[in-house]
Structures are given as structure tokens and as C-alpha cells.
Amino acid sequence: MNLASYLAQNKLKPTQFAARAGVPASTITRILSGARRPLFDTVVKISEATGGEVALSDFVQPADAAPESTSEPTEADCPAS
Description:
The chain has one domain (3-59): 434 Repressor (Amino-terminal Domain). It is 42% helix and 0% strand. It contains 4 helices and no strands.
């Protein structure tokens, strides 16, 4: 189950859940909006606060499903000629 589904099912606001999980409300809001990927410690706190209903694996994407980078390549990305 993803975090948004968990909050909806349990009728929790992000701020309420953030207090329960012990993380800043802004962190939960950014995770929900997709603006931020959670750090491992945050994922553990979310999983614990949901009793495992939102699992660590719910935050992992397969390598082939990862979003493509939209940034320009840097000199370090290009082989020397």
C-alpha cells in the first residue's frame, strides 16, 4: 500500500501522520507530492508508524521504471576525447 492510500484509508492528514511518524510535516507533504524521495531513515519511520502497511518496498522502483534525468550532462558524464 502506498502512503497516500494509507492516509486516505485511515482518514489522516499529512500533518497528523507526520507527528505520529516523528518526521516534519513538510517531509510527508513533499513525499506525497513526488517532490522528494524519502531517505532510508524516513522510510523506516513511515513503515513503523503504519505497522508495516506501508512497507519499505513500497518506496522502491525497479531500475527500468526510474524516471529519466532531465539535467544536462556534466563534464564528468562525458568521456574524454
